Known about the structure:
elongated
Amino acid sequence: MLKNLKFISKFFTIIAIVFAVSCEDDDSFAPVVIDSVESDNFYPGDDVTFKGSNFNKVLFVFLEKNQIPFQLDGDTITFTLPESATIGSGVITLVMANGYTVTKNITVIARPFPIILTISPSAAQEGEQVTITGTSLDNLQSVTIGEVEAAVVSSTASELIITVPAGLAEGVATEVKVVTNGGEASPSSSFYVGQNLLLNGELELGDGDDFTNWGKWNGGDGLTATTADGNAYAGRSLRAVAVGGDAWRTQFVSDPATTLVGAEYKVFMLIKGQPGTPGVGGNVRFSTNPDALYSGNYDITAEWQQIEWTFVANAEQTRAVLDLGVIADAVYFVDNITLIQTGTPPPPPINTNGSFEDSDLGVADGVTGWGGLNGANASGEITDEDSHDGDKSVKMTINAIGANPWDIQPNSSMTVVDGETYHLSVWFKGQGITNIKVAIDQGGDPGWAEWGNPEQAFQDNTWTEVSYDFTADTTNSADGNARFAISMSYDGNVGGVLYIDDLEVRIVQ
Length: 509
């Protein structure tokens, strides 16, 4: 009851004040007038300024039924729309004494959602700058790379420049996120923390239609520079007109980049076709030089897209090659060509001379790292007639059926570590061969662990890989060694020919 009495007392006090003010102003009443407002549309959280006259009489400001604090400066009244303001039409009410009010209709609109149009470069290292362009990038709250906040060098509604923070893993696609008062956005293309191994991959350097660190190996007349809006992704881009007929007839080629043989790399770029040309719906591919590797074909659209290809380096110096020439008169725009290392080379093989490149042609016995190339029913030699990789392989000519598959059995020794898991891979190309057994001898009884390849696998006379994982058990091995052997059977009395190449046994990491 006491609380209720206090509330009633305060209520009548307020009424008395308003009445007193009303009475005081009765003789000198002047209307409150809103002459101008900078806009009729506002975002939640915006400052709103009315200009007019007699604002000194304003006691309260309301947005709909919610009271808003305000500041008065002569003929200017300013207030801030709450962040929770309802989107849509609203009414601002100025309340004066004696129930006198003045209203103004406004519209509260949703703050624009940020949109990212470009991010360049597509790969950068710690401390390097990255430029993001788009719309509604103002009212910025944060920019993160891989959930780590990046320092913002400069910020406008259409462009952000940030610095790659420390502590991020390299060689993996990493999310970039821009957060504003209107929402959050990430680029449609991938961004990698790490070094772009291609010099001038953003194509900004060069005079006229030349691109520093890049060559035009075929179709050079159709490879030009462009900076036109809508055609250049970021700054300066490549415009390519395809010759047609074969992918290699239009080639844009990087300077050699240092690569680790056996390591995994990814090459990617931004590309789109010019509307109204066969470039929309055309296809392109990547390749490498020297010792060419080839990607599959990529279909191109009229919108910027990032295409990428993962490969394992086979040379210490690698050129990235863009093969753009398949579709005659196709027009493409290309930018942000990037080569980044995404994996480390596998550990070296523990076996010796698995490629047979360290052996003399024609020899049978005494091949480096090998023994037992000849069996009772076959002859073996090092040959350059055929190989899976490199120049040489083992050629085994099978003359007659043996009593056992192991009567024809080349073998090699290697040192293993007890309990470690190893991956064995070997390539065969056979004629008349129906079954291959890859065997690992680790001592003991029975001592051989065998893996049989399915029948008919070699009937097509093409190079086929056989692989096998095993865990070393040297319990019964006197010297910690294991022995690899190939046992084979074949079809009928006619014999056959088997090529063996690229045996590798590596520890599984």
